[in-house]
Amino acid sequence: MPDLKPLRYPDFICIGAQKGGTTWLDRMLRQHPDIWLPPTKEVHYFNRLLERRTAASKDETTKIDAARMQSILASMRRVLSEAGTPAEKIAEIYCLSLIGTPEPTDETYGRIFQTAPENRLCGEITPNYARLPDESVLHMLRLQPNLKIIFILRDPIERDWSHLRMQDQRGELQRFAHAERLLRPALRGYSDYATTIEVFGRNVTAKNLLILFFDEIVEQPHKLLKELCTFLGVDYARATFKNVNEVVHAGQPKPMPPELYATLREKLAPVYRRLLSLNHPVVEEWYRKHYGAQSPASNLSPEVASD
Fold first, then answer.
1. Homologous superfamily in CATH for domain 12-38+121-298
2. Nearest-CA neighbor of 272 among 260, 258, 288, 296?
3. Distance between CA 265 and CA 272 in Å, rounded?
4. Whether the Cβ atoms of residue 160 and residue 256 lie closer than 8 Å to each other
5. Which of 67, 86, 174, 282 has the most CB atoms less than 10 A away?
6. Is residue 131 within a helix (H) or strand (E), and if so which, with residue range?
7. Residue 299, by phi and psi: left (phi above 0), alpha (psi -120 to 50) or beta?
């Protein structure tokens, strides 16, 4: 496909949190006529670059590369099976091929968003970006100096339990006990919101960093969408958001084992204390729920399975 337009980079990126409602957000943003997202939810560009730099050799296929390519192939099959003109399908498959390229570069990343209509905002949603270091955030800003960042926070204990349940459903916990899994840096990093906010906050201007809460998706989804549209500079009234109250990736409800809750409560106490510096009523309610005068085990909020 010829390059008829200059390279373009995203106007906004949602960096997570994982299991914090990002799939719901992806479905909502795709309904806005002034917003464009790639044909698959997660692009994984900046974290793939970081992982490839630490690979044993340049020819090594990293785990995230292999998973991305399988996901892209599945998306291509979906595009071919759905309704659409041949031109539309070719454009989507071309975009997917750029996302799945085994050797991602700034050029291939720019070509992804080059396919977006010029009169629409473009962005992407990749929760793994929440764990990126300063150098990766600065890379983002070199490509798009006015980049806007969206970060959705979820009660850390509920987020970890949802994450563990997802892995359990995939059979990934057969090799690890819950307690052992909780000590692994990968799981801990996903709930370390304060560090993510510090990293992005010292590189992105305050007006370009929006922090939202999973609780608002559950309780006041339209209010959250209005706030998000204002942040992005698009008219909320231009979209008719459907299925706003629909739970995404709902699983079978499963109560958290008391011993696991006790472990999470202990391990995540520093996370909650650091988050109190946000001075936000949602965070303060999280803290009261788990560390206040009442028994935290008696007033855990219901599990809402969503990523």
1. P-loop containing nucleotide triphosphate hydrolases (3.40.50.300)
2. 288
3. 9
4. no
5. 282
6. none
7. alpha
- 184 pLDDT exceeds 50? yes
- Give the angle subtended at the CA of 162 by the CAs of 187 and 306, to the nearest 5°: 120
What tokens does 68 get? Answer: 């991305």
Count CB atoms within 10 A of the CB of residue 204: 17
Residue type at position 36: W
**What is the C-alpha separation between 31 and 216, in angstroms, rounded?**
19
Amino acid 211 reads I
| Predicted TM-score of the model (pTM) | 0.88
Q: Band the pLDDT of 167: cuts 50, 70, 90.
A: low
- Cβ neighbours, 10 Å, residue 9: 20
- Give 55 or 123, the one with higher predicted confidence: 123
Question: Is there a contact between 6 and 118 (Cβ–Cβ < 8 Å)?
Answer: no
Q: What is the pLDDT of residue 299?
A: 39
Task: State pLDDT tens for residues 259-291.
Answer: 889 988 998 999 999 999 999 999 999 999 999
Q: What Å distances lie between residue 218 and 215, 221, 241, CA to CA?
A: 5, 6, 15
